[in-house]
Amino acid sequence: MHFFSSCFTLINIRRIVTRFYASEVVVALEYLHMMGIVYRDLKPENVLVRSDGHIMLTDFDLSLRCDDSTSTPAQVIPAQNHTPAPPQSEYAMDPPKFGATSCILPNCIVPSVSCFNPMRRRKKKALAGRHVGPSFVAEPIDVRSMSFVGTHEYLAPEIVSGEGHGSAVDWWTLGIFLFELFYGVTPFRGMDHEVTLANIMARALEFPKEPVVPASAKDLITLLLAKDPCRRLGSTMGASAIKHHQFFGGVNWALLRCTTPPFVPPIFTRDVLSDESCPDTPVEYY
User: Fold this and answer.
1) How many domains does the chain have?
2) What pLDDT, in 10s, does the model give residues 174-223?
3) CATH code assigned at 162
4) Is 67 part of the annotated catalytic residue set?
5) 3-state DSSP helix/strand/coil % of the chain, to nearest 5
């Protein structure tokens, strides 16, 4: 009993820690998208832990800045009844309702399903009474780039294929980032770059048996690593759709930066040898 209790505690701690860092990455990407910037280089090496334990992104050399003609302005989608974390099939069945001013890619529009579909009727009945407030959407989904940029293990399929990509690549890299946080490896890594790229295009996503990862985390990773960018979670509703996933249940997004981080780097000081160009003052290291 003690063994299983310890395992459960470790799993829960891993989930809480990963959820915290993933939450801050989501907010950071949302802010960049609001500014019309597609980051395109999310990976652990570019996520720095500050002295207060919160994270910040660095290295914007590969970022894509959208101009006013291709960027979608931030908007608020009216409140609607929906589940915090619908599975992929439900996303395809019931796409989000956009207003007249909304801007989505034509090839991402999914045909509506007949209102006589029994699955849809059951879904709406199950959602009755579950009200969610308006969603803030800031996603430059109109921007397109043909550039082949990024780290091989984190490249989205649309970059590898050379068909052009938009801001959905950031949500793909978020899925790879989450996978690596949980398992310590990336899901499509091969013996060399060519094999890695081939795996990204053709190999199905598989989860290792160890360590044990919560089902909600696997579901989120699966939705983010949809090879078709039009079906990828976040491709139309941006960070708002990701925030509502059950993996992030309990996260106070409004006060996220006020949340106590799971790890705060210890500060230690070291006396610096003084000379004419370096004053004798202690320096803080993290």
Assistant:
1) 1
2) 999 999 999 999 999 999 999 999 999 999 999 999 888 999 999 999 99
3) 1.10.510.10
4) no
5) 40, 10, 50
